[in-house]
Amino acid sequence: MKHNHVKGLEKNDSIIKGDLEGNDYKVSIVVASFNGDIAQGLLDGALKALGECGTTDIKIIETDGAFEIPVIAKQCTNFSDAVVCLGAVIKGETAHFDHVANECSRGIQQVMLETGKPITFGVLTTYTDFQAKERSLPDSFNEGYQAANTAIRMCSLLKKIG
Length: 162
Prior knowledge:
This protein is α/β, with parallel strands linked by helices and 162 residues long. It has five helices and four strands; from the N terminus they run βαβαβαβαα. Strands 2-1-3-4 form a four-stranded parallel sheet, sandwiched between helices. Helix 1 crosses helix 5.
């Protein structure tokens, strides 16, 4: 999925934006192990992105499912500049998908607002296994890769405007 940016912003020198220089930041990755092969792909993507950013102070914390991610992410803010949240919630035949996906995203947003630290959402919420696998492949569309880059950009941006 291509991200569209506002035309002209990239050429405007008066706009403050984050960069991908991540060697000064401590980053935690919280990964839900449910749907393990997909979670591993997301984790690999996040680690690749952080490596490209020069980030070396990385802690990886594994939890069972996406519902538990927010409480672990909040704890990670005690020792991290940013937290990358990864997992996959794939729709089944019950309402379980809706509850887990909604509460996970709400909880991650709440932690970010309470702590003022970047807590990025790399949790896939897809209708099929195929969609989830497609978003966890080792390419630039990998959602773990995107979430890690966003974490570094947000750390940089917050530092610049702080």
